[in-house]
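Design job #97: recover the sequence.
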């Protein structure tokens, strides 16, 4: 009897697992796209409105650029992020959003190189400050964008295959 219950429990767990995987596959791309859209629009719009807590860090990072003032770069980067967010909201522009995101991400890591006194405690790369952690967490954004980008053709091919059958 115990063996029957164990096997029955394993079958239930397996079915639940399969259902949850199916739900995650169906919802993950839209969840990532909407999350990116909300975050990039929200955080981006704060910059031109001079309401972003990252304003000081951003201005200190771009001050060395040979053209444009730090205030202008703040506005440009803010609107760039808003455009990224808008592009993520639509499946057809997701690839463009990812390209824009990768370009933007290059800039987000600049303080780690140019402002180590701000991003690391006592200039120790093993001890990031709050600002350093804020920047380093962008690795997960890059990873999620890579996953999303890797799924673009897969979902198109899946639709084409099922349409041709």
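Job complete. Output follows.
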């Amino acid at each position: 009897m115990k063996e029957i219950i164990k096997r029955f429990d394993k079958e239930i767990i397996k079915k639940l697992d399969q259902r949850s995987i199916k739900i995650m596959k169906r919802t993950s791309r839209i969840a990532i796209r909407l999350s990116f859209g909300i975050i990039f629009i929200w955080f981006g719009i704060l910059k031109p409105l001079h309401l972003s807590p990252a304003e000081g860090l951003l201005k200190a990072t771009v001050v060395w650029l040979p053209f444009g003032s730090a205030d202008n770069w703040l506005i440009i980067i803010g609107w760039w992020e808003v455009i990224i967010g808008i592009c993520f909201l639509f499946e057809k522009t997701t690839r463009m959003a990812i390209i824009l995101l990768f370009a933007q991400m290059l800039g987000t890591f600049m303080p780690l190189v140019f402002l180590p006194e701000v991003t690391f405690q006592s200039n120790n790369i093993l001890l990031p400050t709050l600002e350093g952690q804020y920047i380093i967490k962008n690795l997960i954004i890059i990873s999620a964008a890579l996953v999303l980008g890797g799924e673009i053709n897969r979902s198109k091919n899946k639709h084409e295959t099922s349409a041709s059958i």
